[in-house]
């Protein structure tokens, strides 16, 4: 078997890669919500992810099966909070919230994770250096939001609340997975979480929202957006995220939420021709500075 853990990918590379993947995911969601029922759209993306990542797990790793109660608890928590609850709330909320605004709201995830960490992971302290990095991230996110302030005032407050609740679900789930400390490999965790989440999303779609495939408009845009979400956002992205979760802890792994809006803004400019304003560039500089400060001083954090 190929051992993925032997690959020499540095933490900064993983941060940038998952941020780019998930930044593009917000654009893909916006495309697809005009063509799919929202919760069914989320369920279909995880059907694809389960097949893609599950097949990859069979080929590349030996420890893809959950063994014992801790492994199954970790898979269950991830499937419920990081997949099912998160995507249900996010897709419903993004019906009335633009992809840019949604990515900015989701960027609050590290702050929420820090709060959960204090109660669930007492051994993982929040240092002054980490607080400074998070503060820089907040400034960057605020700068990114500034050019869209008029749009924010016109955005549905219920939609924002739903997206915020989805961020809280991811933050809580990621910290709880860390607390459980199961032994499933990252790719195995991603595959099993996708399976659990897909089942729950299909049940939610059918039983609570009465959504059916007959309501789907199978255009080229629909296929492309679904394929991107299923393969990259829901397959490759979470696998990288779980790897970071294991390497650098819950608060630091959630810091990717600060860099996602940067990539969402860039992809919005490239794909949707949305302008890159001075505020967006300022936000990018602040987020990048906070990211470098955090990742460049991990050893110093451990000594505090």
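^ structure tokens above, recovered residues below v
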């Amino acid at each position: 078997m190929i051992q993925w853990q032997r690959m020499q990918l540095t933490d900064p590379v993983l941060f940038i890669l998952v941020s780019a993947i998930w930044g593009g995911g917000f654009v893909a969601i916006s495309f697809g919500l005009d063509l799919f029922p929202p919760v069914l759209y989320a369920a279909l993306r995880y059907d694809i992810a389960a097949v893609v990542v599950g097949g990859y797990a069979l080929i590349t790793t030996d420890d893809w099966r959950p063994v014992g109660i801790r492994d199954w608890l970790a898979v269950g928590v991830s499937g419920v909070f990081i997949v099912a609850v998160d995507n249900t709330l996010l897709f419903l909320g993004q019906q009335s919230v633009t992809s840019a605004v949604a990515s900015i709201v989701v960027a609050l995830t590290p702050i929420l994770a820090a709060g959960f960490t204090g109660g669930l992971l007492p051994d993982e302290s929040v240092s002054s250096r980490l607080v400074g990095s998070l503060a820089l991230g907040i400034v960057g996110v605020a700068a990114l939001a500034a050019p869209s302030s008029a749009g924010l005032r016109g955005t549905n407050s219920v939609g924002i609340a739903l997206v915020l609740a989805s961020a809280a679900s991811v933050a809580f789930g990621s910290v709880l997975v860390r607390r459980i400390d199961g032994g499933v490999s990252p790719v195995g965790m991603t595959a099993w979480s996708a399976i659990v989440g897909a089942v729950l999303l299909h049940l939610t779609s059918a039983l609570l929202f009465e959504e059916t495939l007959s309501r789907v408009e199978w255009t080229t845009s629909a296929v492309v957006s679904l394929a991107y979400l299923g393969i990259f956002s829901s397959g490759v992205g979470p696998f990288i995220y779980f790897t970071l979760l294991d390497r650098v802890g819950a608060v630091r792994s959630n810091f990717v939420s600060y860099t996602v809006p940067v990539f969402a803004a860039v992809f919005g400019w490239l794909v949707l021709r949305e302008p890159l304003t001075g505020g967006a560039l300022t936000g990018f500089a602040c987020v990048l500075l906070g990211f470098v400060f955090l990742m460049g001083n991990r050893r110093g954090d451990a000594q505090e």
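The longest helix spans residues 220-248.
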